[in-house]
Amino acid sequence: MTEGWTVSRLTWRAPVLAACLCLAASLAAVAQDEAAARPSALDSLVTWMPFILKGFGLNLLMSVLAMAFATVTGVILGFMQISPLALIRVPAKLVTHLFRNSPWLVILFAIMLLVPFQITLPGGERILIPDWVKATFGFALPVMANISEILRGAVMSIPTGQWESADSLAMTRGQTLRHIILPQCIRRMMPPWMNWYALLTLMTPMAAILGVDEALGNTQAAMEAAGSRPEFLIPFYLFLMTIFFVFIYPISLYTRRLEKRFAAAS
Amino acid sequence: MLDLIAPFFERLNETTGLNFSPFYDSYDWGRLVEGMTVSVKLIAAIIALSLVIGVVGAGAQTSRLKLVRGLVAAYIEVFRNTPPIVQLLFFYFGLGAITPQVDMGGWYEPMIGSFGWAVIAIGIFGGSYNVEIFRSGVEAVPDSTKEAAESLGFSGFQIFVYVTLPLAFRICLPALTNNIISLAKTSSLAYVIAVPEITYSLSGIWSDSVNVPEMMVLLFAYYIVLVAIIARVMTMIERRLALPGYGQ
């Protein structure tokens, strides 16, 4: 979202907060559980926990694959954006702006509805594309555009003097980029890159809207299967938020530490 | 308006098969207009709420009480590190189920509707970013300026309102613009709880008329124009507020 937040202190907060969320979930479950004849909301939650966690596995898989794809394509797009040739630069800029300025949900819809559910290979073979693969692709596009922009920003942030000194050493543009500019860029790109990974992971539950069986979809299915009682809602959703929090919080802490170290170094 | 463009788009549909149904069908046109109005209202409300939260939160973070600072920090961490869509569902279904109902004279309606919950949930989510943005602005205000205000007899609260905040606001405007744009985009999440904003109404149209690609083009165009307008307005504000001696 916003790049380059420099944020604050304290590491012990993570486990405490996670514990608080869990506690709130169980309290909410216990407080609303007076009809003892039926299994309590907490019992149901424990029963369905493996199912939800299995869904979370798919979230992680989608986020890792999407990030890998977005990194590769984003870097290529970023290089196209800084190309001296307008023929390459302008389309790359257009693509970047299109995907940077549209909401995740809209891009996801576009991919899910416009990409066919099966493709026919030249040999006549038909391959079915599972929904989660399409969703992964849909999540990758906005991240790709932002990585492209991060790369462009990082290259722009290198002082012109570096280009000129490389020039005076008779290095070609490719050599300058490879040996002088990029090594410095990678360091600057690391924190925003990790921020985007965290953000991407937080967006993956949107795939549930389009029927992918990931954590959110499984949570809703579990609540329905357990009898869709209204007292399930708070503990189940809190549990879902907790697993995401436990996974994301260390990443964002580490990102902040990196940011601080790089800010101090430069 | 519709009478003017309808013949063209009707012919476009007949000759090329490009079915922009909102531009010739008065019912779909109504849905499109309603979707755009709701979307703009929703975005305005979300931005307003998130700005209020940001200012209040940044003020609370300068508090002397450790508990207050801890609470604000916990709020930021929780809302930034959990999926916004789950937050929205949690608010709408989880908390919506236990909010009181209002007697509407014969039938009962929940006190806060889906629009209200969308504003609350996405506003609180965006506010957690704004607190940090305002805080960085507040920290960038030089101590000497605050000391000067103090020597003029301003109280701590007065210093925050009359000196720190106006300066901090100018300093953090670029970051704020980023967040406001990303909030405008996040507003499309309200689709999940059936707020009739643009994504929802266009999805209604494309499931009725089976014209997904055309409506997608419309949707992308809407958001790109919207983001461009917001960016333009924010640049204008930035220029209007620019202080001599700060920035370029």
UniProtKB/TrEMBL annotation, chain A:
PROSITE patterns, per the entry: ABC_TM1 (PS50928)
Topology with respect to the bilayer: Multi-pass membrane protein
Signal peptide region: 1-31
Coiled-coil stretches noted in the UniProt entry, renumbered to this chain: none
An example molecular function term from Gene Ontology annotations: transmembrane transporter activity
InterPro entries: AA_ABC_transptr_permease_3TM, ArtM/GltK/GlnP/TcyL/YhdX-like, MetI-like, MetI-like_sf
GO biological process, alphabetically ordered: amino acid transport
Pfam family, one: BPD_transp_1
Domain ABC transmembrane type-1: 56-255
Keywords associated with the record: Amino-acid transport, Cell membrane, Membrane, Signal, Transmembrane, Transmembrane helix, Transport
SUPFAM superfamilies, A to Z: MetI-like
Transmembrane segments: 55-80, 101-121, 194-212, 232-251
Compartments (UniProt record): Cell inner membrane; Cell membrane
This protein's GO CC annotations: ATP-binding cassette (ABC) transporter complex
Similarity comment text for this entry: Belongs to the binding-protein-dependent transport system permease family. HisMQ subfamily.
NCBIfam families: HEQRo_perm_3TM (TIGR01726)
Protein known as: Polar amino acid ABC transporter permease
Provenance organism: Roseovarius atlanticus
UniProtKB/TrEMBL annotation, chain B:
UniProt record, GO biological process: amino acid transport
Membrane topology designation: Multi-pass membrane protein
SUPFAM superfamilies for this protein: MetI-like
UniProt KW Ribosomal protein keyword: no
Domain ABC transmembrane type-1 stretches: 36-235
Subcellular location: Cell inner membrane; Cell membrane
GO MF annotation: an example: transmembrane transporter activity
Segments passing through the bilayer: 38-60, 111-131, 152-176, 215-234
One Pfam family recorded for the sequence: BPD_transp_1
Any GO CC annotation of this UniProt entry: ATP-binding cassette (ABC) transporter complex
UniProt keyword Transport, yes or no: yes
Signal peptide: none
Record keywords, A-Z: Amino-acid transport, Cell membrane, Membrane, Transmembrane, Transmembrane helix, Transport
Record-stated family: Belongs to the binding-protein-dependent transport system permease family. HisMQ subfamily.
Protein name according to UniProt: Polar amino acid ABC transporter permease
Organism lineage: Bacteria, Pseudomonadati, Pseudomonadota, Alphaproteobacteria, Rhodobacterales
